[in-house]
Amino acid sequence: MRILKPFEYFEPVTVSDAVGLLATYGDKSRILAGGIDLIPRMRRREISADYLISIQKIPGLDYIQEQENAGLKFGALARLYALENFKGIKKNYPGLHAAIHQISSIQTKHMGTAVGNLCVATPASDVATALLTLGAELTVSGVSRERKIPIGQFFLENNRTSLHGDEMVTGVNLPHPPNGMRTAFLNLFRTHSDIAKVSVAVAVVFEDGLCKEARIAIGAAAPTVFRAVNAEKALAGRKLNSKMIDEAAKIAAEETRPITDMRSTAEYRKSMSELLVRKALERTLESPKV
Amino acid sequence: MKKEICNFRINGRPYELLVAPNTTLSDLLREQLDLTGTKCSCGVGECGSCTVLVDGKPTLSCSTLAVTARDKDILTIEGLSRGTELHPIQKAFIDHGAIQCGYCTPGMIIMAKALLDNNPAPTLEEVKEAMAGNICRCTGYVKIIDAVIAAAHMMRKGGN
C-alpha cells in the first residue's frame, strides 16, 4: 500500500485563515473536508498536494438549518449522513434525499460532505445532479469578498469548478420548494457501491394540472452534470402526459454528450438517459406534492 | 513536513504520539501501534475493511489522516473483547460461520457495533443497509447478516 506523499498540514479555525492559506499556496494546496475523495486520490497519485488545509476544525460549518418559508441551508461540513437524516430534506426535497439515500456506504456518508462532493466536480455526482434541479446557490468565501454562485454556473468541466484559487465553498442555500413541486431521482450503476453510469433528477412544478416549470438534470452523461434545457422548454406550460414525457425524454437524450468508458458505452448512456428521464418524469405524476 | 504531537484515546487507553501528517489512521494503528486487527484491504475507501469508530461514528481509517482524529475516541476490533471474553457480535460471527478468510471481519464487526449501538433491534433490511459499505469477497453475506441479527438478539437479552 503506497503511503501518502509528504505535505505541510494546516488546521485553520476560521474561514478567513483557510482562504488566506489558499491564496498563499495556490495550486499546490488542497482543502480537506471529509477526505473521502481527496485522500484515496492522493494515495493513487492522481492528486498531489504540498499543502493540505483541513477545514474540519473551523467551528460552525456543519449546520443544517431549515428557514421558515425560506428554504434550507447547510454548511461545508454538513455530512451526507446528517443531511439524509434531516427531516426537512426528506419532506421538502425527496429527490435530493433519494440521491443521498442510495449511496450505499454508511461510512462514506458519515465522513463525506455534500459540499466536498460538489467541489470534486465529477459529472457522476448524484448529489450534484439532484441539487441542480433545486435552484441551489453556493456561498463562496475568498480573501477579499464573499459571493454567491448558482449551482448551474459552478461546474466548468470534469474536476473543474468556477472557484478562484483563493476561494472555498462555505455553504449551500436551497430555496423553499415552490407550491406543487414534485421531485424524483433515478440512476443506473454496475453495482450499488459504484458510481452511476447515468443519473437523472427532475423537479416539476405543477399548477392547475399543467407543468408550470420542469427542471431535468443529468449526471455522468457529459463533462459536467447539466440541465437538459431543451427538454425542459418542451414541457413548460404543457400538460404532462405520456406523449409529452416521451418527447421530452428523447430531447433530453439528444442533449447528452456521453463518453464510453469501463462503466458503459456512450450509446448506452444516451439511451438510458432517455429511459431514466421518462421514468423520473412519470414518477412526478405519482409522487405526493411537497 | 512537521510531525505533530497528538493525543488519542484508543480502545479506552490514552496515547500521546508523534504523528506525521501524511500518516493515515489505519497506518497509525497498524504500523505505529501494532493494532493489526484493523485491515487495510483496498486502501482507497471502497471496501470497508478498515472501518473503526471515531467518536462512535463508523470511519474508514485508510482515508482518514491520523492528525484529524486527534483528541478523539477511537475504537478498533481489539477494543471489543473484555479480556478473554468476546463481545456478543464476535461470538455471533463465530457461531454463525460468518468468517471465511477473515479480512473483512474486523470492519464488519465494527460496522455491526455502530449499527447496534444506535439501533438495538434492526430489521433485516436495516442490517443490509448498514453493512452495504463492507465488502466480503468470500461472499458470506447471508451468514454475516444472520450473525448481526443474532448478536442484536443476544445483546438485548443482556449478553453485553
Features:
heterodimer, A: 290 residues, alpha+beta, Uridine Diphospho-n-acetylenolpyruvylglucosamine Reductase, domain 2, Uridine Diphospho-n-acetylenolpyruvylglucosamine Reductase, domain 3, Enolase-like, domain 1, B: 160 residues, DNA polymerase, domain 1, 2 domains, 5-stranded mixed β-sheet, 5 helices, 33% helix
Topology of this protein?
The complex is a heterodimer of chains A (290) and B (160).
Chain A: E1 8-10, H1 15-25, E2 29-32, H2 38-43, E3 51-54, E4 64-67, E5 71-75, H3 80-84, H4 87-92, H5 94-101, H6 106-111, H7 114-120, H8 126-132, E6 137-141, E7 146-150, E8 155-157, E9 160-161, E10 168-174, E11 181-188, E12 198-207, E13 210-219, E14 226-227, H9 229-235, H10 242-254, H11 266-286
Chain B: E1 4-10, E2 13-19, H1 25-32, E3 51-54, E4 57-60, E5 73-75, H2 88-95, H3 105-118, H4 124-130, H5 141-156
Parallel strand pairs in B: 1-5
Antiparallel strand pairs in B: 1-2, 3-4, 3-5
Helix pairs in contact in B: 2-5
